[in-house]
Design brief:
mainly beta, four-stranded antiparallel β-sheet, globular
């Protein structure tokens, strides 16, 4: 069951949330770099996030990458946020037209 999801635009200076569930806010960390903050955090380190970023003017494919920013052994995984990156096929980050993300796990 999806425990958090979001759909937002990021082409403007300030990202605009179109719709969301269990997302309290988002932080724009820079070009193609967003942190989602959960309203209700996750109870263990077993959460998983899928993300997609898309740009109508880009002919190359794009992908959303979720990074939990935990330690190398994942013993300190943040349970209240997730960081997303949007990169093109040459590994350059960029601000897409739209992002979508969904997180699954125990709360």
């Amino acid at each position: 069951i999806v425990k958090a999801w979001i759909n937002f635009q990021s082409k403007s200076a300030t990202p605009v949330i179109a719709a969301s569930f269990n997302i309290s806010s988002l932080t724009d960390n820079g070009v193609g770099d967003i942190t989602l903050n959960f309203s209700q955090g996750f109870g263990d380190d077993g959460s998983a996030t899928i993300a997609n970023c898309r740009d109508k003017n880009l002919t190359n494919g794009v992908s959303g990458i979720a990074n939990n920013e935990g330690d190398a052994d994942d013993s300190n995984v943040p349970r209240n946020s997730i960081r997303l990156f949007c990169v093109n096929l040459v590994d350059a980050t960029f601000d897409p037209d739209w992002w979508t993300a969904a997180t699954f796990g125990n709360q």
